[in-house]
Design brief:
Rossmann fold, alpha/beta, 35% helix, binds 2-deoxy-2-amino glucitol-6-phosphate, 3 domains, six-stranded antiparallel sheet, Glutamine Phosphoribosylpyrophosphate, subunit 1, domain 1, globular
Length: 608
C-alpha cells in the first residue's frame, strides 16, 4: 500500500528521499511527501497530492537549504480522501511521522488523548502522531514503546523528533520494513527498490524492535530498552538496479511480460536434478507431500488465479482434494483443514495482509504450510513452515505478469514432486511432465514475438464498455486472469465465465459486437466450448478465439483467431497468459491510460 523511507547520512537527504520514493511509488501514488531535518535543526515539510514527480517539482521550487536526514512517504489512501492535508508526513507537536498500515483503534485513541481539536487531517496516522507526542517526554525509545502498547492494527512508522536532530526512528508491526547501512548513510524503507541503488546488503527490521538511524550507524533496540544482543541477519539481494529499471521498455509491464521466459528458467532449472523435481536446496522434505490427505491453496487476486490453475492440474493427477480459497474470505471462515492438510500460500510480495492472516489461521488449525513467494525475507516467507521462492526478480508494474507464470512453474513442480513421492507418477512420467513444462517456455517466447499481431485485436475491445472471457476447465481458470488483467489496467468492465454457464443468465448481456475472448485449448471439452462460442456468435458477439495451432475450427466461428503452439493441454496456460497480458497491455495503451500505475490500485496490499 504506502511506501515509506527514512534516511540519515552525509548526502543531501532531499534527493535520497525523492529518489527512494520514485522507487517505492508503485506501492501507492495518491500523494507524496517528505520531512527534512534542516541544518538549523528545523523541520521542513513538503507534501502534495499526485505523484512523486509533482512533489519533486514542488520541492525544487520551494525548499532552500540543506538537510542530511529526513523521512518520505508515498500514499495509497485508506482513511480520508486524497488531499494535501491527508498526505504524510504528519506534524504533531514535537513529532513528525509517516505511516504504512492501518491503526484500527484510532477512534478510541482520539478520545483517550483528547485529540478532537488538534487533528487537521482525516487520517488514522495523524492520531498516532499526536498520541506519540503526548507520550513523549524527551526519551524517544520510551515514547515509541508506550505508543506500541496502545496501538491495534498494522504499521510501519518512520519518526523524527524536533529535539533529536539527525536521528530517524522506525518501528514495524506486520507492515514491511527493511534497513541498510550503506556508503551513502543509513536507510530504512518499505521495500528494497529504494535501497538497491546504494547496497545489496540489508536486513528485515524485526517486529518488536526499534531502529534508530544516525549518520554513522543503525542502532537496533529491543523493546525492553536494551541494545539488541542479536543483530538481525544480513541478507543479500539477488537482483540489481537493472532489474528495477525499464531498460528501454516503455513500461514496466511490457518489460516484465518479456522477462517471463527467463524468470521461468530461473525458477525451474535450479530445482531439476536428473530430469526430476528436487527441493533439497529449498529444504522442503518429502514427508510434507506424503503426509497430507488434502491440499488447500490460499491467495488473493492473480496469485489466487494461479492457485486455480494449479488446482485444476494437481487434483486429477494426485487424486486428493485440492481446494482454492480467496484469502480475505478464508481468514474469517472455519475451514475444514487439519494437521493432514498441506496449506499452500501464494504471494508475490509476501506481504499481502489477508494472505498472511490466512497463513496464521492455517497454523492455528495445525496445518503444515508451504509458501510460494517472490520477495526474499518477506513476512509470509518467514512465517510459513517452508518456502519455495520464485525467481522473477522485482515486479514493479501493478498488474502482475511474470509473478503469475513463475508461481505456476513452482506449483507445477510441487505437483510433480508430490505425484512422484506419493507413487502416482513413475520417474518417467515425472520427467516427461517437467519436459512439457520446459517446452512451454519457447511457446511463451513465440507469443511474445507476436505482440504486433495481438495488438490488432485491441481496436475491437477498447470501443466497448464490456468484454467477456469464456472457457471451460483450465481455460476458465485462464479466463479469470484475462478478465482481471483487462479490467485493472484498461478500466473496461470484463467478466470471466465458465462457457457452459453463460446460458444460465449472463448470455442476456451479449449483444451486437460485444467482444468475447473465447479460450479453447482443452481437448476434452473443446467441442463443448465451440458450441458455447456459437451461442454467443449467434447473438452478435465479436469473437476473438484463442486456441492451439492444430485446432480445426470453421472460419466463420470467430472474427479473429490467435493461435498458440501445440503444447500439452496442461501447459497451455503459459503461452495463453502472454496473449491475455498483451491484450490488457495494449487496451490500456490504446485508451491512453497509466499502464503501470492504474487508478485506485497499489502493488502491495498491506491493509484488509
Ligand atoms: C493483479 O494484477 C494484482 N497485482 C493483484 O491481484 C495481486 O496478484 C494480489 O494483490 C496479490 O498480491 P500478492 O501476490 O503480492 O499477494
Amino acid at each position: 500500500m504506502c511506501g515509506i523511507i527514512g534516511y540519515s547520512g552525509p548526502l543531501e537527504a532531499r534527493n535520497i528521499l525523492l529518489d527512494g520514493l520514485a522507487g517505492l511509488e508503485y506501492r501507492g501514488y495518491d500523494s507524496a511527501g517528505i520531512a527534512l531535518c534542516m541544518e538549523d535543526s528545523s523541520i521542513c515539510l513538503a507534501k502534495k497530492v499526485g505523484k512523486v514527480k509533482t512533489l519533486r517539482d514542488y520541492c525544487d521550487s520551494s525548499i532552500r537549504g540543506t538537510a542530511h536526514s529526513g523521512i518520505g512517504h508515498t500514499r495509497w489512501a485508506t482513511h480520508g480522501g486524497v488531499t494535501d492535508a491527508n498526505a504524510h508526513p504528519h506534524r504533531a507537536g514535537k513529532v513528525t511521522l509517516i505511516h504504512n498500515g492501518i491503526i484500527e483503534n484510532y477512534h478510541a485513541l482520539t478520545e483517550q488523548f483528547k485529540l478532537q481539536d488538534k487533528l487537521i487531517s482525516q487520517t488514522d496516522s495523524e492520531v498516532a502522531a499526536w498520541a506519540l507526542d503526548a507520550l513523549y517526554d524527551g526519551d524517544p525509545l520510551k515514547a515509541i514503546r508506550a505508543l506500541k502498547n496502545q496501538l491495534e492494527g498494522s504499521y510501519s512508522f518512520c519518526i523524527l523528533f524536533d529535539d533529536q536532530p539527525g536521528s530517524v526512528y522506525a518501528i514495524r508491526s506486520v507492515s514491511p520494513l527493511v534497513a541498510a547501512y550503506t556508503h551513502a548513510g543509513a536507510m530504512v524503507a518499505s521495500d528494497l527498490t529504494a535501497l538497491i541503488p546504494y547496497t545489496n546488503q540489508y536486513f528485515v527490521v524485526p517486529e518488536n524492535r526499534i531502529v534508530k538511524l544516525t549518520s554513522y550507524k543503525i542502532h537496533v533496540y529491543d523493546l525492553d530498552d536494551a541494545f539488541t544482543k542479536e543483530y538481525p541477519e544480513i541478507l543479500t539481494v539477488n537482483w540489481n538496479m537493472d532489474a528495477a529499471m525499464k531498460n528501454g521498455f516503455p513500461h514496466f509491464m511490457m518489460k516484465e511480460i518479456h522477462e517471463q521466459p527467463e524468470a521461468m528458467k530461473n525458477t525451474i532449472l535450479p530445482r531439476m536434478n536428473k530430469g526430476l523435481p528436487d527441493f533439497c536446496d529449498d529444504h522442503i522434505p518429502d514427508d510434507l507431500f506424503t503426509g497430507c490427505s488434502q491440499i488447500h491453496i490460499v491467495a488473493c487476486g492473480t496469485a489466487m488465479h494461479a492457485g486455480m490453475v494449479a488446482r485444476a492440474v494437481m487434483e486429477p493427477i494426485l487424486r486428493i482434494p485440492v481446494t482454492v480459497s480467496i484469502a480475505s474470505e478464508f481468514r474469517y471462515e472455519e475451514p475444514l483443514i487439519n494437521d493432514k492438510t498441506l496449506v499452500i500460500i501464494i504471494s508475490q510480495s509476501g506481504e499481502t495482509i489477508d494472505t498472511l492472516a490466512a497463513l496464521r489461521l492455517a497454523h492455528d488449525y495445525g496445518s503444515r504450510t508451504l509458501a510460494v513467494v517472490n520477495v526474499k525475507g518477506s513476512t509470509i516467507a518467514r512465517e510459513s513452515d517452508y518456502v519455495l521462492y520464485t525467481h522473477a526478480g522485482p515486479e514493479i508494474a501493478v498488474a502482475s505478469t511474470k509473478a503469475y507464470s513463475v508461481q505456476l512453474a513452482a506449483l507445477y513442480m510441487v505437483g510433480c514432486r508430490m505425484a512422484l513421492v506419493r507413487g502416482v507418477f513413475t520417474e518417467k512420467q515425472a520427467t516427461d511432465f517437467l519436459t512439457d513444462l520446459l517446452d512451454a517456455i519457447p511457446a511463451m517466447e513465440t507469443m511474445i514475438a507476436q505482440e504486433d499481431t495481438i495488438k490488432q485485436v485491441i481496436t475491437h475491445i477498447i470501443q466497448s464498455p464490456d468484454a467477456f472471457f469464456i472457457g471451460r476447465g483450465l481455460d476458465y481458470a485462464f479466463s479469470l486472469e484475462g478478465a482481471l488483467k483487462l479490467k485493472e489496467i484498461s478500466y473496461i468492465h470484463s467478466e470471466a465465465y465458465a462457457a457452459g454457464e453463460l446460458k444460465h443468465g449472463t448470455i442476456a448481456l451479449i449483444s451486437d459486437q460485444v467482444p468475447v475472448i473465447a479460450i479453447a485449448t482443452q481437448q476434452h471439452v473443446f467441442a463443448k466450448t465451440i458450441s458455447n462460442i456459437r451461442e454467443v456468435k449467434a447473438r452478435g458477439a465479436f469473437i476473438i478465439l484463442l486456441t492451439k495451432e492444430s485446432a480445426v475450427v470453421d472460419d466463420t466461428l470467430a472474427d479473429i483467431q490467435i493461435h498458440i503452439p501445440d503444447v500439452d493441454d496442461r501447459f497451455t496456460v503459459f503461452p495463453i497468459v502472454v496473449v491475455l497480458q498483451l491484450i490488457a497491455y495494449y487496451a490500456s495503451l490504446g485508451k491512453n491510460l497509466d499502464v503501470d500505475q492504474p487508478r485506485n490500485l497499489a502493488k502491495s496490499v498491506t491493509v484488509e
